Backbone:
């Protein structure tokens, strides 16, 4: 199963429409999409607007691959669950998010080998055709790096004892 | 989600988590859990509601330290926390790989500990790099 998610905040119809067209063309019946608060509905794939965390987790568990906007929630979910992920960044100029930061995020995480990226709809279709070959990145644990946790912990405790 | 990955840093302390996602309640154990509405800079009424709700939460919980990984609720929480004498920790989201977020820039002079999650964004007089949520 391919699990598609746009995050909880905003819809991303441009991505979901491309996936819906692809699924119709290829007669795929194994795609489920969480599409966010939007008036448009897919016709070829199963969908819902929102998922509560337990349902979200079980969709991720079922999925062979995740296709998502380039949001950190989606990327971290894939990395902690050991699922392959293909991301498409939202564009600031289309008001899909506040600016082009997702384009930079996607590019950087792809360079680090942690995600696959499709920058536009045609690239998305091409990468969906070979999504069965996509491999997960090294799985990460539940916590931030020891350095970051230690730095914040020391700061908090310095405050507690420092006056 | 990034804040949840920092939980070990708060162990042993009295913690209130504030989020825009009610679904995270199950992830914070016995810590207090408060939800605020989400809003972007294009939604002024939403921002005012969010700020009022955060003011109430900050006044009720009287934090010694406010820690945020970003966006509008974190910005308001830090400004409000500073007003009542709290120390502020800003961990700029790992999503910001080319520049510090707009809210991160705004919060800059208020944060006592100002961190970026990318080594190449750390600079003298700017945010420090001290690891990442991944």
Residues:
């Amino acid at each position: 199963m391919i699990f598609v998610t746009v995050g909880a905040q905003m819809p991303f119809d441009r991505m979901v429409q491309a996936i819906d067209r692809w699924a119709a063309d290829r007669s795929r019946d194994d795609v489920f999409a969480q599409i966010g608060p939007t008036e448009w509905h897919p016709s070829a794939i199963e969908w819902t607007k929102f998922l509560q965390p337990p349902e979200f987790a079980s969709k991720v568990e079922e999925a062979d691959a995740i296709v998502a906007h380039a949001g950190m929630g989606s990327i971290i979910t894939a990395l902690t669950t050991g699922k392959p992920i293909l991301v498409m960044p939202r564009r600031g100029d289309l008001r899909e998010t506040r600016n082009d930061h997702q384009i930079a995020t996607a590019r950087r995480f792809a360079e680090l080998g942690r995600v696959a990226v499709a920058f536009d709809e045609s690239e998305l279709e091409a990468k969906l055709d070979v999504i069965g070959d996509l491999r997960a990145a090294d799985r990460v644990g539940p916590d931030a790096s020891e350095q970051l946790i230690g730095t914040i912990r020391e700061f908090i405790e310095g405050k507690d004892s420092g006056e | 989600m990034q804040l949840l990955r920092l939980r070990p840093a708060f162990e042993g302390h009295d913690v209130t988590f504030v989020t825009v996602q009610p679904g995270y309640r199950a992830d914070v154990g016995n810590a207090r859990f408060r939800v605020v509405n989400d809003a972007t800079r294009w939604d002024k009424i939403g921002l005012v509601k969010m700020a009022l709700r955060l003011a109430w939460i900050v006044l009720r919980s009287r934090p010694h330290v406010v820690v945020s990984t970003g966006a509008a609720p974190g910005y308001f929480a830090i400004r409000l926390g500073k007003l009542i004498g709290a120390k502020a920790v800003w961990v700029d989201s790992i999503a910001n790989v080319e520049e510090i977020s707009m809210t991160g820039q705004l919060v800059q002079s208020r944060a006592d500990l100002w961190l970026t999650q990318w080594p190449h964004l750390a600079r003298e007089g700017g945010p420090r790099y001290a690891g990442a949520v991944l």
